[in-house]
Amino acid sequence: MRRALALVTHGDYLNDWRFWAVQFIVVSLAFAHDFLERVFPNLIDLHTAPMSLFWAPVVYAAWVFGFGGAILTASFAVVMNLPHIIFAYSGGDRLWET
User: Fold this and answer.
1) By three-state DSSP, how is residue 45 classified?
2) 59-88 pLDDT, tens digit each
3) pLDDT per residue as tens digits for the range 6-65
4) Euclidean distance between CA atoms 33 and 84, whole angstroms
5) Cβ distance 26 to 80 under 8 Å?
6) Could you tell me which residues come within 8 angstroms of residue 56 by beta carbon, excluding any fewer than 6 positions away?
7) Is 40 within 8 Å of 46 (Cβ atoms)?
8) Which of 82, 91, 87 is nearest to 38 (CA)?
């Protein structure tokens, strides 16, 4: 467990502006998904488009910052979507949203 934690927290990417730009993209995608779903609830393709783009920041973080950056970015994407999944859906619908 310590070794895995060391892989994630070891790195200069926490001081790199590009890492924080990637996290901003994750936040923007989460807000875009929530906004589009609230404004256009009947246009499923429109509000699922930001959700289908969450892989891009994770892949970029893996490419530039390595495993640790990718794990942090993916974890942050999950955390950013948890309130939406918990409060906007109930029952089995939560499984489809994840």
Assistant:
1) helix
2) 999 999 988 889 999 999 999 888 777 776
3) 656 666 777 889 999 999 999 999 998 888 888 887 887 776 788 889 899 999 999 999
4) 9
5) yes
6) 25
7) yes
8) 87
Q: Supply 7's token pair.
A: 């892989």
Neighbouring residues of 78: CB distance < 8 A, sequence distance ≥ 6: none
Task: Spell out where 1-98 has E strands.
Answer: none
Residue with tokens 């589009």: 36
Cα dihedral across residues 27, 94, 62, 76: positive or negative: positive
Contact 56, 22 (CB under 8 A): no
**Angle at which helices 55-88 and 17-39 cross, to 10°:** 40
